[in-house]
């Protein structure tokens, strides 16, 4: 089993993440968070809110900011007037290129289908290229291993190999083959019996359409939001008018987003329903460059502060040809997932594009009024926007991947989730060493006391070693054991998950210890 398979199995077995609608065969791209998963995701979102919004100015990293700034929160409606999506460009442009297979009825994202031809290189045969047939397989050029690309066509490729004895197989990608009618006619799709079954790529809008009210006509069309960001832009004036925030400031929102992804894949990484944690940070146009640099670093460091290993985390600046036409800069925080390096969060300098679009479409003046600006000409202006946009599900997956570990304790193998205590679903488990001599009663009293402030767990069943290992797999950072000494001197054993080190702690200091280490 590779790491991803092990993680998916642990998530199912221990109640982190289940396939959505599982008893009906599931629904592709939809996932349900179980009892441990919901706690992990809530802790993650809470950590983001605490660090980015509630206590952002108490953090040591603030000195990196060009100047002090404000933050305000928002929870906007998920359904919005469809004009919002026209102004933002989503109705016209939020699409992926899609191809259909007329024979198998499978649908693919054109940019995620590698088309390749075969070459046989070898002493006996010299170099022979097979170019009467091209093969298409799901994957990404440069990222997907040759074996995976071969897998859907194994039989046919094995037959060709026989015809070129001694020849070593080479896969040569053919760029843009799907857009070319002649090349498409030669392309064999996965599972198809003959070449030429793929359609030309066409734009497929990723927004889920729905109707508001009883009438199902064009006037009632709206969309499930594909990002939380637009809810922030359309409330920019409301927040300015009702709070004391002054530019520079950010508006933050956490909430569900929906995208009808053509190929949801890699567990929760690309889902059709997911949660975003977004900030739109409004600043003076002349300061946008400095704030962009600040947020690039600030967001990268946030993952490190929560225990993610730096060697797995990368900050990649987009090349000029990757940028949207309105963007002045964009960087991705990328993580080395088991399936390859991929985007965790994007930080973009969106200039004044969104506010300008909404100002034009709505006819409302969305300019900011700076009453302390001495120059009357410069008092009203459209701020520029830096947008750090993170996915809660993707971050949860990355933290799970980073935390998953296998080692040996006392000669026995164990699986352990080394989650940061702030993220851990259960903060501590409380055990009586044995089920007698007043130990369960004392352990239950400690449990009830801690339960008022923390998500703690009580367990008295089975050998103590097994109880430890169950908690290691759930990512619980501390196990508190009540033993004979507890009854004599009111101290307990605290076992730390990662090192397995045990220390003696006074029972009445447990609350302070957990608060300091887990937050709360
Ligand atoms: N407002 C900007 C925006 O939405 P995005 O790069 O499309 O930008 C931001 O999305 C983040 O949302 C991504 O970095 C990722 O973490 C998360 N995300 C996007 N699509 C997703 C999907 N289909 N499944 C899970 N997370 C997704």
How would you explain this protein's 3D organization?
This protein has 520 residues and is α+β, with helices and mostly antiparallel strands. It is built from 16 helices and 27 strands. It has a seven-stranded mixed beta sheet. A hairpin with a 6-residue loop joins β4 and β5 (107-109). It binds glycyl-adenosine-5'-phosphate. The site of glycyl-adenosine-5'-phosphate has 19 residues, from β14, β17, β20 and α12.
Structural class by secondary-structure content: alpha+beta
Shape: globular
Termini Cα gap: 38 Å
Mean pLDDT over the residues: 94
Number of helices: 16
Side by side, the strands of the main sheet go 3-13-14-20-17-16-15
Lay out the secondary structure:
Elements: H1 3-13, E1 17-19, E2 31-33, H2 35-54, E3 70-74, H3 82-88, H4 90-93, E4 95-100, E5 107-109, E6 113-122, E7 126-138, H5 146-150, H6 154-162, E8 168-173, H7 181-185, E9 187-188, E10 202-205, E11 209-211, E12 221-223, H8 229-233, H9 236-242, E13 249-258, E14 273-283, H10 288-305, E15 313-317, E16 329-337, E17 340-351, H11 353-362, E18 368-369, E19 380-381, E20 384-391, H12 392-403, E21 404-409, E22 412-417, E23 428-432, H13 439-451, E24 456-458, H14 464-474, E25 478-482, H15 484-489, E26 491-496, E27 502-506, H16 510-518
Parallel strand pairs: 3-13, 7-9, 23-24, 23-25
Antiparallel strand pairs: 1-2, 4-5, 4-10, 6-7, 6-8, 11-12, 13-14, 14-20, 15-16, 16-17, 17-20, 18-19, 21-22, 25-26, 26-27
Bound molecules: glycyl-adenosine-5'-phosphate.
List keywords for this structure.
alpha+beta, 520 residues, 5-stranded mixed beta sheet, binds glycyl-adenosine-5'-phosphate
């Amino acid at each position: 089993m590779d790491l991803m398979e092990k993680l998916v199995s642990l998530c199912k077995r221990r109640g982190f993440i289940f396939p959505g609608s599982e008893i009906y065969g599931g629904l592709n791209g939809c996932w349900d968070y179980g009892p441990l998963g919901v706690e992990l995701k809530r802790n993650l979102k809470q950590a983001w809110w605490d660090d980015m919004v509630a206590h952002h100015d108490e953090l040591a990293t603030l000195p990196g900011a060009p100047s002090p700034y404000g933050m305000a929160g928002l929870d906007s409606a998920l359904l919005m007037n469809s004009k919002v999506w026209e102004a933002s460009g989503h109705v016209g442009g939020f699409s992926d290129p899609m191809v259909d297979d007329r024979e198998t009825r499978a649908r693919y994202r054109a940019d995620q289908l590698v088309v390749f031809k075969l070459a046989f290189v070898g002493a006996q045969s010299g170099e022979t290229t097979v170019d009467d047939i091209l093969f298409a397989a799901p994957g990404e050029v440069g990222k997907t291993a040759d074996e995976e690309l071969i897998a859907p066509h194994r039989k046919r490729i094995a037959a060709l190999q026989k015809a070129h004895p001694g020849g070593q197989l080479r896969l040569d990608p053919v760029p843009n083959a799907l857009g070319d009618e002649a090349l498409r006619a030669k392309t064999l799709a996965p599972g198809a019996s003959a070449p030429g079954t793929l359609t030309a790529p066409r734009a497929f809008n990723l927004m889920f359409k729905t109707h508001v009210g009883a009438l199902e006509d064009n006037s009632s069309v709206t969309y499930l939001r594909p990002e939380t960001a637009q809810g922030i832009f359309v409330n920019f004036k409301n927040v300015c008018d009702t709070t004391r925030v002054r530019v520079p400031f950010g508006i933050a929102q956490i909430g569900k987003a929906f995208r009808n992804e053509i190929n949801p894949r890699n567990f929760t990484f690309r889902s059709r329903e997911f949660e975003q944690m977004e900030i739109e940070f409004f600043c003076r146009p002349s300061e946008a460059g400095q704030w962009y640099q600040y947020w690039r670093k600030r967001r990268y460091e946030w993952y490190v502060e929560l225990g993610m290993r730096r060697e797995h985390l990368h900050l990649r600046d987009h090349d000029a040809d990757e940028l949207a036409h309105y963007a002045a800069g964009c960087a991705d925080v990328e993580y080395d997932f088991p399936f390859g390096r991929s985007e965790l969060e994007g930080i973009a300098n969106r200039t004044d594009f969104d506010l300008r679009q909404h100002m034009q479409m709505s006819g409302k003046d969305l300019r900011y009024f700076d009453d302390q600006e001495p120059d009357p000409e410069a008092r009203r202006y459209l701020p520029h926007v830096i947008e750090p946009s993170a996915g809660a599900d993707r971050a949860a997956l990355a933290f799970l991947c980073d935390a998953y570990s296998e080692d040996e304790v006392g000669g026995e193998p164990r699986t352990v989730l080394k989650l940061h205590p702030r993220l851990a679903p259960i903060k501590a488990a409380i055990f009586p060493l044995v089920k007698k001599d007043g130990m369960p009663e004392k352990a239950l009293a400690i449990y009830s006391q801690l339960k008022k402030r923390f998500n703690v767990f009580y367990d008295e069943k089975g050998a103590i070693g097994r109880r430890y290992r169950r908690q290691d797999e759930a990512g619980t950072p501390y196990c508190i054991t009540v033993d004979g000494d507890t009854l004599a001197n009111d101290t307990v054993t605290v076992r730390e998950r990662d090192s397995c080190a045990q220390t003696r702690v006074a029972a009445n200091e447990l609350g302070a210890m957990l608060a300091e280490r887990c937050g709360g």
